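Researcher: Please translate sequence to structure tokens.
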Amino acid sequence: MISDNYKQKIKESINKKFGELGIDDDSINELIEVSISSLEEELDKIDKILESDNLSELGFHTHTIKGVLLNVGLNDDANSFKEIKHLVEDGKSVDEIKAITKERLAIFY
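Model: Translation complete:
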């Protein structure tokens, strides 16, 4: 689901961030696998949410994506998801929320 280019971006960021801390390669590789798997699970959940008009859990799942991205050092990408939770809380239209969410998710594909 996540493009190879984005997986590579995750790998490079994790290697840089945790390699500098002296973390061993096995632990870094496990972190890469867990991070990619977590993102893919959340993206699947968000896809299902976007197929419906019930966006009540959208903020939770985009917040989780933001957290994973912050943990792997992709802060700029993470910050692009901060807004989505607030769109739901601010009562934006379903169509507007879906459009903005899909725009933000495009970085993964």
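Researcher: Any highlights?
Model: DSSP finds six helices and no strands in the chain.
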